């Protein structure tokens, strides 16, 4: 059986007991680099992959396998990719998304937030103009500095909160005004936009 296990924001302290038990009981564990380090605290043998297609190469339906996904596998995660490739998923174990962690750090409710992923995706930021609160997953191209400048061009006024290395010892959370130059402290971040709508 193939289980997809949500690893939360990365720090082992944010894993659920169900996730830990699924990793311990698996005959094969597959993970990306950052998550791989966390998994190796739980089990000795982890297959480290660098690309999504490498996961498929390491699958065998006869082997009890845990595919480890950062954050929550159902929130802009690996589930859709696996389904498109015809992989039968036996179980999905949820994890805390990096955006949930970020909102907790900011002590802000997020139930009305616009949720966007620019992590390897081409999404438009126009929706942020009409939303009081937006949460954006980024990548090295669609980084916080790019988002800050683009939103300023769109006439958005307000605050931009940026979180890097969330849950790790090197965690950084910055608060800037939209339009400000933002110091880049990593390739992946979570951005929270507070739009001061009229």
Secondary-structure blueprint:
Blueprint: E1 2-6, H1 17-25, E2 28-32, H2 33-42, E3 47-49, H3 52-57, E4 65-69, H4 79-84, E5 91-93, H5 98-106, E6 114-117, H6 126-129, E7 133-137, H7 144-153, E8 158-164, E9 172-177, E10 189-195
Parallel strand pairs: 1-4, 1-5, 2-3, 2-4, 6-7
Antiparallel strand pairs: 7-10, 8-9, 8-10
Named at the architecture level, the CATH assignment of the largest domain is 2-Layer Sandwich
State the order of secondary-structure elements, H for helix, E for strand: EHEHEHEHEHEHEHEEE
Q: What is the helix fraction of residues, given as a range?
A: 25-40%
- The radius of gyration is 18 Å
Strand numbers in spatial order across the main sheet: 3-2-4-1-5
The residue-averaged pLDDT reads: 93
Q: Count every helix, treating DSSP H or I runs of 4 or more residues as helices.
A: 7
The CATH topology assignment of the largest domain is: Methyltransferase, Cobalt-precorrin-4 Transmethylase, Domain 2
What structural class results from the helix and strand content? Answer: alpha/beta
Number of strands: 10
Give the name of the CATH superfamily of the largest domain: Tetrapyrrole methylase, C-terminal domain
Low-confidence stretches: none
